[in-house]
Specification:
The chain has about 250 residues and is of the alpha/beta class. Helices cover about 40% and strands about 20% of the residues. The chain has 9 helices and 10 strands. The longest helix has 25 residues. The chain is elongated. InterPro entries: Solute-binding_3/MltF_N. Belongs to the bacterial solute-binding protein 3 family. Keywords: Signal. This is Transporter substrate-binding domain-containing protein.
Length: about 250
């Protein structure tokens, strides 16, 4: 049996190690890790302490990651306000389900993927609003911390609606329960979840049958921090998200 010189064997081993390192380096470069900052938000996704997030939006984000060539990492359960701050600082990469605003556009790339139901009208079950004209001179509660479209504000102004700015949804729903206001404009899923956890409110408050006309600006967006070290992936993420939208894999209200 032919014996190779010891130095030659060492040289071969070194070359093999270098080759492995190069291959692993290319593999890592081909799959950068992006963090999705999220909180528990059923029914889109559930995220309880000590558990992995699950739900239709998690499935969408994982598929988007595979098709875009990055590894998806989940943040710990984090409130939305904290996630926005981390996005602004470039300390996290992605958020999902955000409304567009000029301020947010300054530090995030916002990619639309689904119609939003962020301005759904809730009413007392005994006082439904049949159409746009019935809004005239009513009192509608809006939550201070939420973003409302110019279209909705214009409609309410045209109908001479008195807009009551309140601190949070809980306060708005309590006011509606006691008929101190006529309607609340709020996000469908979040408000329905609030009502589910409060049987007293759920017994008196319903989604109004008539809703204001749907508008283009009422869309949910995938957000990529402009300060992210992987922001250069935005083109392939955008292209792959468009494919998911075309395949109707991003619609969570149907």
């Amino acid at each position: 049996m032919l014996k190779l010189p010891r130095l030659l064997l060492i040289d071969v081993a070194v070359l093999l190690c270098i080759s492995c390192s190069i291959v692993m380096g290319h593999a890592n470069a081909a799959a950068p890790e992006l963090e999705w900052c999220l909180d528990d938000f059923p029914p889109r996704h559930s995220y309880l302490p000590g558990q992995q997030p699950s739900g239709p939006m998690v499935d969408m984000m994982q598929k988007l990651a595979r098709q875009s060539g990055f590894t998806l990492k989940f943040s710990p359960p984090t409130p939305t306000a904290r996630c926005l701050l981390l996005m602004q600082q470039g300390k996290t990469d992605l958020m999902a389900g955000l409304m567009w605003s000029e301020q947010r556009e300054q530090y995030m790339l916002l990619l639309p993927f689904d119609e939003a139901k962020s301005e759904t009208l809730f009413v007392h079950k005994d006082q439904p609003i049949a159409d746009e004209n019935m809004l005239q001179n009513l009192q509608v509660a809006l939550v201070k911390s939420r973003i409302y479209s110019k279209g909705l504000i214009t409609l309410l102004e045209q109908q001479q609606v008195k807009m009551r700015r309140v601190d949070d949804l809980e306060q708005a729903m309590a006011m509606l329960h006691f008929k101190q206001i006529d309607a609340v404009a709020g996000p469908l899923h979040i408000t329905e979840r609030l009502l589910t956890h409060n049987p007293r409110l759920q017994s008196s408050i319903v989604v109004n049958a008539w809703q204001p006309p749907s508008r283009r600006e009422l869309q949910n967006h995938l957000a990529l921090s402009r300060m992210s070290p992987n922001f250069q992936l935005h083109l392939q993420i955008s292209q792959q998200l468009e494919k998911l939208v075309a395949a109707k894999e991003t619609h969570f209200y149907e």
